[in-house]
């Protein structure tokens, strides 16, 4: 089983392609998206996505707007922001909006994997808790 | 840095002009009241002291006139007294007359030269005096003829038998049915002293003239100041001054000569009373003086004051050089004028000094302001460079990230081994990608360098189109991320213009960055059009952003005015643009409607002209 199911969102096609190769090699299942709109579409289609790696600066719908949408529609999906130095402020804003963490671009692949793993773990813990709660709900009802 | 040599030249000229205006204002404002007040006071003082001098001289003339008349009256009284109090027999004795003369000498000094008794035929019956005049016959002599028909008589000065100037005082008495004259000779020197004593200042002298224009006293020393005719005119003038009352008086004078019974002694005595004139309460004319101003033969102005005496027979004339009479006044006026001039000189000097200091200070403040402005421009430049740098850093960050990831991918593959499956092909692809991204970085850095290299602000011939393209290029990434579509419509036949490259860059950069900032969230369209309009070159930058509210529109060129949050903008961008374009002799027009967009139009004059200060 893959370490994590990831959606990588960035407008730079070569970046996305190479990152997918590298992350796949590290046991991750990665889907590409080249804009905010596409990311939302992919999330709707692939419910199993656990972590979104999101570039802040994108033409069209930018990272922050995309984040807001994701958090609205898929609140359990964890988001890691990718940012150039000049947009650290937006990354911090993203954290306030519910992003899991942020990384400076270009980032170290191991660090990225680590963050993604943590995020996926968190998401799984969250989901487990939800399942537990639901189960408790069912069992108490049955009692 | 900034070429402002022309500005400095016009600046110093306008400072000099400014200084002159201030100085002139101070001088006029200070001197006008000073001159007005001094002038008024001097004029009033002149009038007043003129009046005082005239009044004083009139007073002196009247006083002396009275003194002389008193003298004459007294001498006449003395002789009258002599004739009344002694019998004819006593007066006929020479011894007695000598005795009386000695008594008179004892009383009055050597005033009476001699005494004599003359019968109606002109024969001198007795005589006491220093001359040998016993038994002299005066019949036919002028004074005798005149004295005979009057009760009392004072003659004019004449030489007579003794060949010395003298005049005679005679009183008519009737003894035993015959007329006799008691007469005395008045010493000319003693009489003259009365008039000679009357001097004032350096040139004020007095003398007496009779109707015939003969001197009754010593003529004034030196040459006569006026012609004899002018002196004689005084008689007529005096009579015309007296007016109607005079003509009546003249008539009565004629009557006197026809009517010997009228006593002239009485006339003289009456003058010094203040009789109520039967027709008017005015003082009789004889107490009046009359004054004329004449130019003397030597050109000096003379003040001549005259008064009749001895029953209008004689005229006491006092003359003084005007300069002398008004010496005190003139001295005061000269001192006042000197003080005024000294004050004026001081004021003028101070005005120029103060205005010089003031203008120097203003010039210093101006140059400080100039330095400040330059610093503001520099700050603004740095700020926009910072903004630009952030954009560039991000732009360059993307290819760098790709290169790093490709390199990481190659390392990943190397761990698997170079000979595995299609790894070799993957290597080649990755390297190709790194090269591509490297070129992309190079493109960005070159663009930035070509922009940054133009750092000196010398004025040169530039082609605006190039700069528009360059700046749009540089900002292309920003446009892309903000979803802004840029439409550049360059006029290919745009003429070159004299301008500083960095300044033009800065203006375009600032306006475009503002447009991007305004539309960052919404995206939009920017249309840049270059062209010419009459003698101007125009660059219009139109966006369809949110527009500028009317309240802010008036303030957008003010330094430090910004709508951006703290730390996001200096508020200097547009104020710098305004300064740059204004310096080039051009202008920036703004047209903005809320929710419709904003158009900045830069208008630059094509014909080379002096930069405006």
Which properties best describe this structure?
heterodimer; A: alpha/beta; Rossmann fold; 5-stranded parallel beta sheet; 5 strands; B: 613 residues; alpha+beta; Beta-Lactamase; Heat Shock Protein 90; 2 domains; 5-stranded mixed beta sheet; 16 helices; disordered N terminus
- Mean pLDDT across all amino acids of chain A: 88
Domains counted in the coordinates of chain B: how many? 2
Largest binding interface between chains: A-B, 20 and 23 residues
Low-confidence stretches of chain B: 1-9, 244-285, 609-613
Helix fraction of chain B? 40-55%
Mean pLDDT value of chain B = 80
Strand content of chain B: 15-25%
What structural category arises from helix and sheet content of chain A? alpha/beta
Task: Find the CATH topology of chain A.
Answer: Rossmann fold
The main pleated sheet of chain B reads as: 5 strands, antiparallel
Q: State the total count of DSSP E strands of chain A.
A: 5
CATH architecture of the largest domain in chain B: 2-Layer Sandwich
Low-confidence parts of chain A: none
For this structure, the CATH topology of the largest domain in chain B is Beta-Lactamase
Termini Cα gap of chain B = 16 Å
Shape of chain B: rod-shaped
Fold and architecture overview:
The complex is a heterodimer of chains A (143) and B (613). By secondary structure, chain A is an alpha/beta fold. Chain A has a single domain, classed as 3-Layer(aba) Sandwich (Rossmann fold), CATH 3.40.50.2300. Chain A is built from 5 helices and 5 strands, in the order βαβαβαβαβα. Chain A has a 5-stranded parallel β-sheet with strand order 2-1-3-4-5, sandwiched between helices. In chain A, strand 4 (78-83), helix 4 (88-96) and strand 5 (101-104) form a beta-alpha-beta unit. In chain A, helix 2 (36-45) runs parallel beside helix 3 and helix 3 (63-73) runs parallel beside helix 4 (88-96). Chain A is globular, with a radius of gyration of 16 Å. The N and C termini of chain A lie far apart (36 Å). Helix content of chain B is 54%, strand content 18%. With 613 residues, chain B is of the alpha+beta class. Chain B contains 16 helices and 16 strands. Chain B has 2 domains: 50-325, Beta-Lactamase; 372-605, Heat Shock Protein 90. In chain B, helix 1 (5-85) packs antiparallel against helix 10 (327-416) and helix 12 crosses helix 14 (501-519). Classes of the chains: A alpha/beta (143), B alpha+beta (613). The A-B interface holds A 12, 14-15, 18-19, 21-22, 25, 57-60, 62, 84-87, 105-106, 109 and B 390-391, 393-394, 397-398, 400-406, 408-409, 412, 430, 433, 436-437, 480-481, 483.
